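dumping this here so i dont lose it
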C-alpha cells in the first residue's frame, strides 16, 4: 500500500529530534537531506518561488501526458529521487523580508544545508558567520564544487565536470587499442553528487555528535571535487604508492584477475574472483583443472602479470555456456558471479523485491510516486517513509503560521509582495 502524505507528517526514527533547514537544490544537497529525513529528521526544504530546478528536469514527469512541467502536478521524476520526507516552503530570500524569515527558522534549527557558490549567501545575512551569531548550536554544511578555499573556490561545479577533473573519467570506459583511442566516459548516474551527499550526511552527524559534547555547532565545508578525489580509492593509492597511472580498462580490474564481464552464448556474465580458491573453483567448473594448476596463474599477482593469456583462455571456454547455466554452476561452486541487469530487470529481481527496495508513496493531491528505499536495515530504529516528494510550496502557509506564529494578514501581505508563495 502506498504511504500517504499528511499535512505535517509526524517523525520517528533516530534523528526525529533534529530539524534541518534545506537551502540546497539539484542533487548533492537534496541527497544529503533526504538521508537525514529518512532517518527521522524534520527537513524544511526552502525553494525559490519557481522551485528546485530538478522539478523541470524531464521527461518523464509525474503526469504521463505531460511533455513539460507546465501541467499541474507534473514534477519530473528526477525531483522525486531525492526529496522524500520533506516539507516544501517557497521563500524569496533575495528580499529582506524573505531573508528575515530564513534567519528566524535558522534560529531554532539544528542543521542547515546549502549549495550556493562560495559567499553567495553572505549578502543575505544567511552565511555561517551571520547565522552562528543567531544560533551557536547550528551545524551549517556548505556543499560546493571545489570548496571554500583554494584557487578553484569561485568556480561552479557540476557532477559531470568533477568526474572529469577528479580523475574518474580517465579510468572509466573502453581501453585504448591500436584501432581505437580511449574515449573519456562518465558514469550512468551523477555518482559524484551522490557520494558527496553521503559524505556530507556522515559529516553532519559527526558534527551533531560533537555538539552533544561541546554544546557548539560548526561549519562543514564539503566539496564535490574533494569527495571525488577521495573516492578514487585503490586507483588513487595505485598512483600514490606505485606511481602507476591508471587508465581505462573497460570491465577489467587493475588489481584482480579474473574480475570482469565475459561474453557467453546469450549475453554476458560477471565473474569476480577475489582469491586463489575462487579462481581454482572457476577452473573446475569450466573443466579446465590444468589451468587452475598452471604456474603462470597460481596466484593473483601471477594472473595480473599474465592477464592477456589467461583472459583469452577463459573467454574461449565461457563462450560455450548459456548465461543462466554458468551462473548456476558458479554459484554452487562459491564463485562470485551474476548477470548484467537492465534497470527494469533490477526492479523485477526477487532479491530487490524481498528487500522491499521500492516504496510506493501517495502525495496529498493523489499522485502516486514510487520511490527507492533507504538501503540500510536497522533492527531497532529503521528508516521511515512519512511523506512523498512534496508539491512546490505545500507547507509554506502552514509553516509561517505554526513555526513563526505569523497571523493570516501578515502571511497574505508576504504573498502579495512576492516574498512567499
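and the seq i came up w/
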Amino acid at each position: 500500500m502506498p504511504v500517504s502524505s499528511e499535512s505535517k507528517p509526524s517523525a520517528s526514527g533516530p534523528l526525529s529530534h533534529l530539524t534541518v533547514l534545506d537551502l540546497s537544490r539539484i542533487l548533492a544537497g537534496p541527497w544529503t537531506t533526504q538521508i537525514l529525513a529518512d532517518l527521522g529528521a524534520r527537513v524544511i526544504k526552502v525553494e525559490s518561488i519557481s522551485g528546485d530546478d530538478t522539478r523541470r528536469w524531464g521527461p518523464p514527469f509525474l503526469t504521463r501526458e505531460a511533455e513539460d512541467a507546465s501541467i499541474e502536478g507534473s514534477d519530473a521524476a528526477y525531483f522525486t529521487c531525492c526529496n522524500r520526507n520533506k516539507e516544501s516552503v517557497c521563500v524569496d530570500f533575495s528580499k529582506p523580508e524573505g531573508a528575515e524569515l530564513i534567519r528566524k527558522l535558522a534560529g531554532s534549527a539544528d542543521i542547515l544545508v546549502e549549495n550556493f557558490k562560495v559567499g553567495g549567501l553572505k549578502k543575505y545575512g544567511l552565511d555561517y558567520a551571520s547565522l552562528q551569531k543567531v544560533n551557536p548550536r547550528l551545524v551549517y554544511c556548505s556543499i560546493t564544487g571545489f570548496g571554500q578555499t583554494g584557487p578553484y573556490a569561485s568556480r561552479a561545479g557540476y557532477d559531470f565536470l568533477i568526474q572529469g577533473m577528479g580523475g574518474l573519467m580517465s579510468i572509466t570506459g573502453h581501453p585504448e587499442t591500436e584501432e581505437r583511442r580511449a574515449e573519456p566516459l562518465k558514469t550512468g548516474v551523477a555518482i559524484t553528487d551522490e557520494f558527496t551527499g553521503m559524505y556530507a550526511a556522515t559529516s553532519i552527524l559527526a558534527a551533531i555528535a560533537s555538539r552533544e559534547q561541546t554544546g557548539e555547532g560548526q561549519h562543514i565545508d564539503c566539496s564535490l571535487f574533494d569527495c571525488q578525489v577521495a573516492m578514487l580509492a585503490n586507483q588513487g593509492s595505485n598512483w600514490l604508492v606505485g606511481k602507476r597511472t591508471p587508465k581505462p580498462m573497460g570491465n577489467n580490474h587493475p588489481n584482480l584477475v579474473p574480475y570482469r564481464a565475459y561474453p557467453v552464448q546469450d549475453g554476458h556474465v560477471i565473474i569476480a574472483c577475489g582469491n586463489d580458491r575462487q579462481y581454482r573453483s572457476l577452473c573446475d567448473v569450466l573443466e579446465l583443472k590444468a589451468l587452475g594448476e598452471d604456474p603462470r596463474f597460481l596466484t593473483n599477482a601471477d594472473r595480473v602479470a599474465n592477464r592477456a593469456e589467461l583472459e583469452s583462455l577463459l573467454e574461449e571456454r565461457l563462450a560455450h555456456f548459456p548465461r543462466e547455466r554458468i551462473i548456476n554452476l558458479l554459484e554452487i561452486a562459491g564463485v562470485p558471479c551474476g548477470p548484467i541487469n537492465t534497470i527494469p530487470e533490477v526492479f523485477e529481481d526477487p532479491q530487490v523485491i524481498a528487500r522491499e527496495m521500492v516504496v510506493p508513496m501517495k502525495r496529498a493531491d493523489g499522485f502516486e510516486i514510487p520511490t527507492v528505499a533507504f538501503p540500510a536495515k536497522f533492527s531497532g530504529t529503521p528508516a521511515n517513509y512519512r511523506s512523498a516528494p512534496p508539491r512546490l510550496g505545500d507547507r509554506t502557509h502552514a509553516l509561517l503560521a505554526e513555526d513563526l506564529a505569523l497571523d493570516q494578514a501578515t502571511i497574505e501581505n508576504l504573498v502579495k509582495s512576492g516574498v512567499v508563495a
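The mean pLDDT is 94.
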